[in-house]
Amino acid sequence: MMRIGLIDVDGHNWPNLCLMKLSAYHKARGDTVEWWTPEGRYDLVYKSRVFTDLYSKDTITVTNADRVLLGGTGYGLSVKLPYGIEHIYPDYSLYPQFADTAYGFLSRGCPRNCGFCIVSGKEGARSVKNTDLAEFWHGQREIKLMDANLLACPDRDELLKQLAESRAYVDFTQGLDCRLLNDDAIDALNRIRLKEIHFAWDSVAESDAVLRGLRQYAARAKRKPHGTYATVYVLTNYASTHEEDLYRVETLRAMGYDPYVMVYDRPSAPAVTRQLQRWVNNKRIFRTVEHFEDYIPGRIGGKAHEN
Fold first, then answer.
1. 3-state DSSP call for residue 154?
2. What residues contact residue 93 under an 8 Å CB cut-off, 6+ apart?
3. What are the backbone angles phi and psi of residue 298, rounded to the nearest 5°?
4. How many CB atoms lie within 10 A of CB 35?
5. CB-based contacts of 293: which residues, under 8 Å, 6+ apart?
6. Could you tell me how far CA 229 lies from the centroid of its own chain?
7. What is the pLDDT of residues 242-298, one digit of tens each?
8. In sequence order, what are the beta bridge partners of 236?
9. Bridge partner list, 67
10. Any idea what DSSP says for residue 187?
11. What's the predicted TM-score (pTM) here?
């Protein structure tokens, strides 16, 4: 029997599926699994990191283990879980605060191959079915999907049907590709009990296709979660000007969508982009300060007041 230590380098604010699956695998073998501590001795320690050095620093040095294995996109794209571990039911006892929610991927990969995204290089330049819902959903009241491009998957109709039949609340955590929306896809989404749904408007060059999909969804969507049709991620600091970023934000709000600004390589972003992010993503301010030019960070309420 081995003593296994686990390290979630990114923190514990979001369950690390890789570590949860490794834990389930080792426990099934009779090994002892626990969060790593500097005390004691381990046969094997796994360190997992999703984010790169820009967002997650690895400052943990392990000196009390026979072996230390590193994995996750924060360390590179080459290390992958063996098939039998990738498709095991995760050990939710590691994150009891998330036990009422099922986390997983129905599909993997994306055909878009966007320069700012690692998915095509990591998972493949096609969206393919990864598994059936029953593999990682065991009756929890909520499902959080982390698929990169489910709508591009040839099996999307079958997978969306599985979500609808679960009657669980579904959160599409990643930005669904609104360029692929059509009546059939929207009707399938309407049959799902939506907790959250997100789209993405990453490129101004794709504006025509994005707006066509968003208009079609707004015309056919069954309900408006939280008073808007959906949250739309707006990528900034990547091949766009401030004027183009602001245009997307204002267009989305006028259409009844809730924009959410994502900053690529935030440390290199100009001050105006970081200010735009704070204005848009702080919804109390965004709903009370109508125009960006009236927003001044640090002022009470975020407003510029006349004397």
1. coil
2. 23, 99
3. 95, -20
4. 12
5. none
6. 19
7. 999 999 999 999 999 999 999 999 889 999 999 999 999 999 999 999 999 999 776
8. 263
9. 44
10. H
11. 0.90
Tokens 């009891």 identify what position?
A: 96
DSSP class of residue 193 equals E
**Concatenated DSSP letters of 42-84:** EEEEEEE--S-TTT--------SEEEEEEESTTT-SS----HH
CA 124, 179, 151, 200 dihedral sign is positive
DSSP one-letter string for 251-295: HHHHHT-EEEEEETTGGGS-HHHHHHHHHHH-HHHHHH--SGGGB
pLDDT tens figures, 65-88: 999 999 988 887 778 899 999 999
Asked if 171 and 196 touch (Cβ cutoff 8 Å), the reply is yes
Pair type for strands 42-48 and 65-71: parallel
Q: Report how far apart, in Å, the C-alpha atoms of 56 and of each of 72, 274, 281, 286 are.
A: 12, 19, 21, 28
For residues 262 and 295, what is the distance between their CA atoms, to the nearest angstrom?
18
Name the token pair of 65.
């283990």
How do strand 142-145 and strand 101-104 relate by DSSP bridges?
A: parallel
What CA–CA distance (Å, rounded) separates 298 from 132? 48
Tokens matching residue 54: 């820009």
The neighbouring-strand residues paired with 69 are 46
Q: Residue 95, Cβ neighbours under 10 Å: how many?
A: 19
